[in-house]
Structure formats: structure tokens, C-alpha cells
Records
---
Amino acid sequence: MLNEWLQSPLFSLTLTIGIYVLAQAVYRRTAIILFNPVALAIAGIIGVLLSLDIPYATYDRGGRYLLFLLGPAVVALGVPLYQRRQEIVRRKLPILAGVAAGALTSVITASGTAWLLGASSSTVRSMAPKSVTTPIAIGIAEKIGGISPLTAAIVVATGCLGGMCGPEFCRLIGIRSPASAGLAVGTAAHGIGTARMLEIDRLGGAIAGLAIGLNGLVTAIIVPLLFILFPV
Amino acid sequence: MLRGMAVLLLLQAAGELLSAGLDLPVPGNVIGMILLFAALRWDLVNLETVKEASELLLANLGLLFVPAGVGVMVYFDLIRKEWLPLLVATVFSTFAVMAVTGWVDQLLARKEQNHAE
């Protein structure tokens, strides 16, 4: 009976939402950025699954319902984009230049650092699309001979890191306006960064959402070209 | 609320169709975001129709990334093999991208503002 419940989608959903709510409470109470609710919930759920010996495939039978809602949620980012369209259109050149510079920086520093540290060719290639949203990143990784599951894991880690301390880091290095911080966090840390940005500032969140799409597009174009020029 | 949800799902489907049909490098839901913006901009969709459903989803956007994140546990072995280059490259690159993107945007936005004055 208990075992049946543990294997059910009902358990996965209860666990996921329960731990996430708990993680939010911990984050609010402690205000420690390391306790970012998304990162904390992921770690907590993995801990529970491992200790109860529940395989990911079983967990995913419930988890996929939440994953499904990610689709319409990304579409919903069109709403803040529309509401803040005047400010965004006014900044179109800085936004485009910022994303282009960020996309190039991402590929060069991610793959370059891994290469310098002696990572294998397939790992270097898996690193390249690390800052873009998962479905785009996987498509790019497959195209250039990366390992797409490894790319997916790196993308999640990148998002958690940017969501965890992106806005704080921006403030620290003198990026003052919420618009610039939103662009930085959305470009570097895709949806997870955007989720954090939306909690802080509406315009920043709208621009972060836009940055997911723009960075995905730019990265999908430049990564295959860069690996033709530098076949590592 | 339900009408809004229906609009979001419909636009996601349209986005998926466009992405697959035109073989675009951008996934359907991101195209759906642009379609929703366009539909609002040209009054094909009323903001009030989609507002409630959108706010609910966006207020809990973080939660929706959790199941995919848990999926990382399947690849622990793959990560363990080259964990040091993976860790250093990911951390360094993430901060580098934020710095470059934020600075470029801020610098150009200030320059434009100065020109306008």
C-alpha cells in the first residue's frame, strides 16, 4: 500500500510541490542566497528519491505534469513583454548588442575553459550551449556532437547558479538598472534566472524572458559556425 | 482563467507547428511567446483574457523547472567523470556572461540616453 503510493504520480507531485513550498519558506526565513528555492527543492527531492530508492523514471510519471505546464508558462512570458513594450522597444539596440556579446562570451568561456582544463572533445562540445533554454541547448548539442543529457544537466546547473546569485552579482559589479540586470540574468541563466528576476522586478523579468528567446536564436546560429572554425 | 489557459495552449501549439514546419532553431513555446506578444499588440487577444492564467503560471515559474532539474540525478556518473572542468567552466562562464551582457547593455543604454538629452 505504502509502496504503491510512493510509486504513484500523486506522490511525485505531493513531494515536488511540498518540498518547493518548504524550500521557499527556508529561503524567505534565512535570506541565504545559497538556499535558492529551485536549487534547494531539486537537491531535496533527489535526496528523498535516492534514500527511498525510487528511480527517476517513476518520479517522472508525476513530475511530467509540472514539466508540461512549462510550455504555456513560457508562452505567458509574452504578457510582461507586452506590458513593458515601450521601455523594451526604446532599448532595442542595447538589448540586441548585450545578448550578442553575452552569447559569444558564453560559448567561448564555457567551451574554452573546459578545453583548457583538459576536458574531452565531447564534453567541450556539450558545454557550448550551456546558457540557453534546455530544448534549444539539446538541439545544438546534438548538432555539434555533444552529449545531450550532459548538456541538459549543465543547463540546469547554470540556471540554478544564475537564479541563485545573478541579481546580487549584477549589483556587486555595478549593473544598477533592473533592465540591464534582467538582460544579464536571462541571457546567462535562461528560464530559472528569469523566474528569479520576475520575483524582483517586472521590467527585469520581462527583459529576461525576451533574452531567453534571443540568446537561444543567436547561440543556435553561432555555435555550429564556431566549431567549424575551431574543430576541438 | 480557463479562456486564458486555452489561448496560451493554442499559441503554444501554433508555435510548435511553426517551429517544426519551418525547421526553426527556436522551440515552439518561445515562438508562442512572440505570437502572444504579437496577438496582444495587434488586439487579436485581450490582455484581460490571458492575464490571470499568465500571472498564475509566471508566479510559480521556478516550480515548473524542478522536475527537469531532478532529472540531473540520472547523469551523476556522466558528471562525475569530468566534474572539475565542468564545475569550473560552468561557474566562470555563467558569471562572465552576466558581466559582459549587463555591462554592454548598460553602457549602450546610457550612451543613447545622453544622445537623447
---
Amino acid sequence: MSILVDRDTRVLVQGITGREGSFHTEQMVEYGTNVVSGVTPGGKGKSVAGAPVFDTVADAVAETAPNVAIIFVPARFAPDAIYEAIDNGLPLVVCITEGIPVADMVPIYAHAQNRGTRLLGPNCPGLITPDEAKVGIMPGFIHTPGPVGVVSRSGTLTYEVVDALSRAGTGQSTAVGIGGDPVIGTSFVDVLGLFEADPATEAIVVIGEIGGNDEETAAHFIQEHVTKPVVGFIAGQTAPPGKRMGHAGAIISGGSGTAAEKMAALEAAGVRVVDRPSAVPEAIQTALRTS
Amino acid sequence: MNLHEYQAAEVFASHGIRTNSGGVASTAEEAEALARDAGRPVVVKAQVLTGGRGKAGGVRLASSPEETREVASAILGLDIRGHTVRKVLVAPAVDIAQEFYLGVTLDRARRQNVVIASAEGGVDIEEVARERSERIVRTLVDPFLGLHAWQARQIGFALGLPPDQVAGFVTMVRQLYDTYLSEDAALTEINPLVLTRQGDWVALDAKMTVDDNALFRHPGLESLRDLDAEDPTERDARESGISFVKLDGDIGCIVNGAGLAMATMDAVMLHGGKPANFLDVGGGASADQVAKAFSLVTADPSVRAILINIFGGITRGDIAAQGITEALRRVSVPVPIVVRLSGTNAEEGRRLLSEAGLSASDSMDEAAAQAVRAAHAA
């Protein structure tokens, strides 16, 4: 078991013939992911890594029955691609694209909610269920199957933690990158709920960063609804206020969104908060032994 | 991107908002001339991209052109929270009956835009929110239906406005919301929004932050960017597509990935050092990017050691190592360099680095500790 993606996942790649899209399609296929088709307007008849290319999502859906869309379309055209995936009934849409204006994401989020579509991202690395399906841009080989659910706002920091876990002999059920933008489709709380309900997940790692208050909301949710042990790490303890730290959403504004507040909130909810990524494996192993 | 008050006021005015139009001066003489044209008492306001101008002495009244010159000359050149005042706005003083706060921004938790209003204007709104949250009215806007007139009206009544003032207030709210939407703003704010003794609604201040990701569809706003107000290294970094934020420590950081870059700064602090910067070179860590990163980091004379932290994912560690050694052939780096290289083909990468005489570690903690020692020894 796992969450969101597994052996039955059938992936549609939007923007499949672009540089990023074709490269990562090959990587996903190499990992063993079932990529059933791709879309590039005007690309009908081509194929990438064995996956047939269609002009529209509607055609790809009719011909290949995908159940996940992953989007590599450039920021200016990505909002339209997300709408196309939602309106064609894809239940899970993963948007890798970075740099989409917030004003575009606000109505997209509402539309996805109205249609019952789960949107992951944008500006995220995607998600992976080790040895089953990789729907994203993470290096597959660092992941190993196991009992730990990982959810994170950052890409490379997730790889860092996953790699440390795997080297310590602790595998992952599913690792989910929710993205670093101010408006994202899936929040910590959504993923925590899924991990809590997943029998294969025995412990959870939450990797947050400065900006917004999704970690505080997550802390509240953990206190009320999560029975499994949770380990947390927050990046940006040394970040100054008012400066965007790479990710559009990673900014301390009006004195709120600091790492200290988030760490305190998580600790108050019973989360084992560690001060460095390398401390995650031991904290998780302790949690697994004592739970 | 933040706009200066006078720039935001122009944008607001283009959307029909009544602003307290004045003129911008770079010298005391220009300020004096503007006051003479106004023909009445004026307020002289420092134009800096930071808050707290009033407390810092950057906003002052002047009753005559001569006094305006004196006041402007005191304000120009003032340092307000690290920002040097290069321009002042000279605007006619207004006969204020009542001050309000009005702003539009994103409610991140609800993923919806929100109108924020308060009858406590002209003060620090964050302080009001913390200490007297009941004095703040928050109204979420439906992303498809927009802001209804009744919502704006309801805000007006909640602020305790007399019925004959509500219509003017509603217009102001809708104009500010329209400005926010059509300019792709992250924030439009009027603090204070005033009701004059003559019964007019006037935006006495104007603040606007634009979503950087949306600047491609607002070329006019991009041209308002104040290059003088930006740290020169940060500007250089932005122009070469590297995320860089200058900090006040002495250990330069070069990292792939924003989250990892923040964690690297934290690791430096954890080991007793202070990071000199945040720097995300992006995914590739190519020789070009790394060379650029080296020149950005070494532009800061207080940097005494450099910590490179690369987690090889899709980009292999040996390729990243080649990028680093190639970059070092192009730019000279006068301080010790410590590399942490992990992930794909990292062993081969570390071998290449030691061949090039660089110390390379597999552990982020170890590398951070080593960089701190190197900086202290330097």
C-alpha cells in the first residue's frame, strides 16, 4: 500500500515533447512508471519513450485512459494545461512548472476543488511510491520501499532526507513534494490525512520551511487526527524577514511565518522536531520502535 | 517587487483612485519649488522601500516653501532601516476628519483574495491585528464572482461609517480590488485612507507589491523597478537567474535547491558560524552557473570561507564536480572552499574534487563544521 500513486497508476504527460517533459518522461519510464501517453498541441503521431503523443487531453483520455496527469508546460501556458486536465476528469494532476502567477492559481485552486480534482503543486518535484511509480522529477534510485511517509515543501531537501532514511535502512511508503508556491493544490493537512489512513505508513516526516502558516495548520491537524508518530524539520531558521528565499512562498512577512513559530507549533502537537536533516532517520527509528 | 509610494499612487490613480497627488523631488530645491506650486502647507515623505518611515523621521509637515527645503534636506540622505532616501514626495497637507486602513492581499491559508479594513488607520496594521484583532474586518473574495458591492458596503457599515459616507467608501474598495487584480499585485494597500473634513475619500498613502512571476505581462511595472534601492549583488544575481539574498555573516553558501539552501544556512549557524548569503544555483550546477555563483559570493568582502552543498539528483555528482573545477579555472576565489557532495555518482565527484585540491565531504554537518573552522582560521 501507499498513497496517491502505485502500480496501477497510468500517467499522462502534458508538455511531453519539450526539453523537460521528454527528459523526465524517459526517466519516469526507466524507473518503471507506466506512462501511457502525452500531449503537445500539434504533436499528434509522435512518441516519447514509447508513449504516444496526442493533440489534446481529451484524445489522450479517450485512447489511453490515464489516471494521473503530470504537467511540464512553461509557466505562461501551464494554467491552461491544468484546466485542460481538470476539465477532462483526471482525478490527480501534478504540476511541476515553476513561476505561475498567483492570480492564475487562485481560480485554478477553486476550480479543482469544485470538480473534486486533486492538484499537487505547482512548483513541486511530484511524488513517488518506491519501486511502483515515480510521477515527478526526483532521482528515483535514492528511494527504497518501507514504512515512512514523507511530505515536503522543498525538492532537494526531500531528496536529502529520503537519502538519509534509505542509507539508514528505513524505506518510504510514498514521498510527496507539495511545492513552494503561496497557492498550492495539496497541503500538508491533505497528505497527512492520507498517510494516517494508509495501512502501509507507520510514521511520517514533515519537512516545512518559512512562509505562510501551513505548518501551523498541520500541527493542529496532527494533534486532532494523526495517531502515527511524526518527525518534523523546518528550513530557514536563519532567514531574514521580508526576503523571498528562492521559493515564491518562502518569505517571512509581517513578522509571521518564521521557522521558530512553526517548530514550536509542531512540538506542541507532539511532533519530534529535529534541527538538521541528518537527525531525521534516528528520530524516525526511535518513533517506530516506541510506537 | 515593491513599488515606491509615488509609483504606487500613480498606478492607483490610473484605476480611478483619488490620491493625494504631489510631486517627487531629488533635491531640497526641487522640493521647495513643489511646495511653492502647491501654495499651501505640504507633507514631505521619504520614498524608501521599507515601512516605519514615520518613526524614523522620514515623514514631516512643512508650512512654507522655505521650511519644505529645510525638511527635505534633512530627509534626503537619511538612512531608514538600511535604505538611503534618494527621493521625497511633496504633497499638499490634507484636512483629515478620520483615518482608516484598507488593503487587498492573498489569504494563503484559504487560497483566496481578502479585503482587510480597519477604522484604525495610519498605524501599524500588523500591531492592530495582533493586539486588537476585533478592530479588523476581513472579507474573502470569490475567485469567480469577484467582490460584490454588498460586501464592500458591509465592510463600510462594520467600520461604523455614517450611511452617507458608505457609497464613496464602496467605490474606493472596489477600485483598490480592481487595481490588485488587474496589476497582478501581491498587495495593494492604503494606510491611511482618509475622509477629509470636506467629505472626500482620499488615499493619503499608497503601497503596492507586484507578483514577480506575473511581471512578464506588465512590462510597464517592470520599468518602475528602483535599481538603486536594490543590493547590487542581488540585482546581478536576479539578472542571471540565480536566487540570491545577502546576509550579514562571513560564510558564503552555494547550494542546489531553495530548501536545501536554507537548511545549509541553518547548518552553518548550528555549527557556530554565520551565513553570508542564501544562494540557489538551480538544478544543473553547470560551470557557468557555479562560476557566476562564485563571483556573486566573493563580491562580498566579509566572506572568509565558501561552503558548496550539492545533492546530486538528476544532475550527477561527477558532472557537478566538473562544473566546480571548471568554474575555478575561470574565476579566482581568494578564500578557502569546502564542498559537500552527495547523491548520484558522488564518490566519483569527490574523487575529482580532491584531485583538484578541494576538500570534499559526504556529510552536510561535517562540511558546515569545516567551513566554520576555515572561516575562523582565516
